[in-house]
């Protein structure tokens, strides 16, 4: 069997919500953690987002709870079309994705697409130090798979030609 994961770690679980303040406050109270600071998706000039194969402007409010072994993210999508907005409108408040880190997004992109999991959305991270990519695994998993690649950890890759430049 071909190996998909670079390691045996789930990096993140994300829940989309229509009210990030209420959802994250409920979670903070439940688990006894302080409310994390709010962040946002990268601005369009940094994000260079693609959604369903087309350049896109996507926005989101984000709160990230850090645990010793995993991050739990709450994300409220902006009004524009995005993988986040689609999921929220279809399922309401729910688990959107499970994220794995990779050192080679190009290779993992080709692997997931070979398994029939199309790229839904991708972009650069907020601080321009890496990128994310969402793949359609909803029919099998009930959620999306996200791949996260940090510039500081990636292995040398050929120029990517998929999905408009980078997976």
Can you describe what's shown?
This protein has a 10-stranded mixed sheet. The chain has 167 residues and is of the alpha+beta class. The protein has one domain (12-165): 2,3-Dihydroxybiphenyl 1,2-Dioxygenase, domain 1. It has 5 helices and 10 strands, in the order βαβαββββαβαββαβ.
Order of helices and strands: EHEHEEEEHEHEEHE
Q: State the secondary-structure class.
A: alpha+beta
The N- and C-terminal alpha carbons lie at a distance of 23 Å
Strand content: 25-35%
CATH architecture heading: Roll
* Radius of gyration (Å): 15 Å
List low-confidence stretches: 161-165
CATH topology: 2,3-Dihydroxybiphenyl 1,2-Dioxygenase, domain 1
The largest β sheet comes out as:
10 strands, mixed
CATH level 1 name:
Alpha Beta
Name the overall outline.
Answer: globular
Helix count equals 5
Report mean pLDDT, rounded to a whole number: 90
CATH superfamily: 2,3-Dihydroxybiphenyl 1,2-Dioxygenase, domain 1
- Number of E strands: 10
Total individual domains: 1
Offer a concise description of the structure.
By secondary structure, this protein is an alpha+beta fold.
Helices and strands in order:
Blueprint: E1 12-16, H1 20-31, E2 38-40, H2 44-47, E3 50-51, E4 54-55, E5 60-66, E6 71-77, H3 83-91, E7 94-101, H4 105-114, E8 119-124, E9 130-135, H5 138-141, E10 144-150
Parallel strand pairs: 1-6, 7-10
Antiparallel strand pairs: 1-7, 2-5, 3-4, 3-8, 5-6, 8-9, 9-10
């Amino acid at each position: 069997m071909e190996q998909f994961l670079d390691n045996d770690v789930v990096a993140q679980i994300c829940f989309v919500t229509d009210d990030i303040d209420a959802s994250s406050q409920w979670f903070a109270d439940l688990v006894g953690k302080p409310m994390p600071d709010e962040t946002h998706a990268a601005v369009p000039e940094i994000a260079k987002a693609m959604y369903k194969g087309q350049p896109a402007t996507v926005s989101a409010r984000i709160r990230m709870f850090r645990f010793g072994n995993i991050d739990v993210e709450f994300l409220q999508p902006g009004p524009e079309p995005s993988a986040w907005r689609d999921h929220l409108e279809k399922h309401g408040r729910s688990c959107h994705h499970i994220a794995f880190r990779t050192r080679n997004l190009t290779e993992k992109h080709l692997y997931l697409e070979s398994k029939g999991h199309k790229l839904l959305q991708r972009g650069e991270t907020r601080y321009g130090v890496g990128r994310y990519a969402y793949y359609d695994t909803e029919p099998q998993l009930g959620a999306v798979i996200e791949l996260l690649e940090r510039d500081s950890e990636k292995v040398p890759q050929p120029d990517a030609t998929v999905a408009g430049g980078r997976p």
